[in-house]
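Regression test attached.
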Amino acid sequence: MLILECPCCGVKAEETELAPGGEAHLKRYGPGSSDEDFDNYMFARANPKGVHFERWRHAYGCGKWFLAARCTATLEVFGTYPAQTTEPPAELQAYIKSRRPEWEGYK
Amino acid sequence: MPNAVSALNGKAFSGFAQITEAGLQGMITLRGDLASPVIAEAVRAATGTPVPGPRQVVSAGGKSALWMSPDELLLLVPYADAAGIAAQLTPALSGEHALAVNVSDARAMFRIQGAKAAQVLQKLAPVDFDTLGADEVRRSRLAQVAAAMWKSGPDEFTVIGFRSVAGYIMGLLENAALPGSEIA
């Protein structure tokens, strides 16, 4: 069972209260972009075994989107943070690095 | 005007806790920037309470304000006054990016009373009721439908859900409160 703390309302929400939103921090390529960029944006997704950044929505609670960092292999949750960010907060990245020294880092 | 009736017209059930559909209750959804002084003024005029902090419910003189999300409040007022208060809120919020709507007839409210009232909800919601604060409102789910619930008295919980699923919620609560099905 996955328990994520919603950074918007502070509730420790259990997985069934949340709606998954897929991979976080995708850069959108819209009209005018190359076919290759659009194809990557539309279809290519990371599928790592290990550290992963995801979008979640607190669907049965405050209804807000937020982002979470967790390990896909162990379900360890490294942290959650507001959706209004373009990359994971530095302290969260440092924490993940301390928990997973082999992690190659964000981008 | 035709007589207004609540979703289940005050249906009641007596198990190891008392379940009651609470009848007509005025409810106003207020959305906007909760830090704004204009909204604070409007909430005070509508309910006589300050703007509640995150996940808090504040009450004064039979009216309450519930924190529903970072930009949403639910104001509980007498049913007969709800339309009037909602109409006054709109001019009071002019200039704000805000919205006040009377949702009284779109929601249903239930009360669960008794020493073991918490057990009824513990069976239905993924919520740790032991750590739920006395004036904390928790939005979650009851089985398959969304609901907001809070401890409204020493041995009482109040639940708000959508009117369209009021029958489902009542069925859930009745089943969870069946005599002999207490948790330990």
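Expected vs. actual: identical. Chain A touches chain B through 14 residues (CB under 8 Å).
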